[in-house]
Amino acid sequence: MEQNRSIIIVGQPGTSKTTYLSQLVLQVEGKKKAIKFRNKPDDLSILKDAIAQLRSGQEVQATPSDNNEIIKLPLSINGNEVDLVCPDYAGEQISNLLESREIDAKWIDLIVNSNAWIIFVRPTQLTVSYDISTKSIQEAETVKQSSDSEFQISDQSNLIELLQILRYYKKLTVQQETKCPKLLITFTCWDELDGKYTPLEYVQKQLPLFYEYITNNWNKDSFSFAGLSAQGGKIAEVKEDYEVFGPEESAYIVEQSGGDNVFDLSLLITKVL
Fold first, then answer.
1. How many CA atoms within 13 Å lie on the side-chain side of 179?
2. Angle at which helices 45-55 and 17-30 pack, to 10 degrees?
3. Which of 10, 134, 143, 171 has the CA that lies 20 to 30 A from 248?
4. CA 229 to CA 118: how far, in whole Å?
5. What percent of the chain has pLDDT above 90?
6. Predicted TM-score (pTM) of this structure
C-alpha cells in the first residue's frame, strides 16, 4: 500500500471539475461507496454553493475567474491514502497557460509532488475538423482558400501542449517511458455523445495525434481513458431523480472499453493508484 499519494485534476473551462468534486463529496458523505475522508477536509466552503445548486436541481455555475484556491480532499479508498488536489481555478487559467507558457509557484509545487494526473476533456467543446493529423493536404488547402481564420492551433495540439508543460515541470524525459505520474484522460459530459463511442474509440478516432503522444511517452500500464457524466445527463432530464435519490446517485463513469455505467465516482481515483 502506497501512502499519501497526490492526484491532481486539470481541465479547461466547462469540463465539470467543480461538478465532479461536489458529487464526489456527496458520495463520500453518503457513505455508500468504498471511499471516505481520512480526516475532515480543511475547507469545503469552496464547493458549498455548487453542492447547493446540485441539490436544488440547478446547473453548477462556473468558477469565478479571480479564484485561485486549492481544494484538497484527504481520502481513503480501500486502504489507500490519497490526497485529491484540484486548484479551484477558472478553467480560463488553463487556456491562458497554454498561450503564455507561464505557470505560478503553487501550480509548480502541485505538479512536482504529484503521483498521478487526471485530465478533464469535454469532447463536445473540441474542434478537430482541420487538424493536419486527420485531414489531407488537399482538404487543408481547400479550407485555407476559403478562410485563413480557420487555421489556428487545434484543441488536440493544445492537449498535447498541456501534457508537455506538465511533463516539463515534473522533469520527465523522452528517453524513458513514463510510469509515474500515472495519467487518466477523462472525457466529461459523456452523455452528450449519445453512446457513439467508447472512451478508447473516441480518442483513437477523434484525437489520434493526442493518443499517439500518450502511447509513445507513457508506459502501457500507466495511462488509461474514461468517460464521466458528473451530472448524469441534462439537468432537465435528471432533476426528478435528483429530488428522489440525490444528485450524487445520477453521476456515472464509463470504462475505456465501454460496458455498464459505474455509479461510483471514486473509480477515477482508483484507476490511477
1. 1
2. 80
3. 10
4. 15
5. 61
6. 0.88
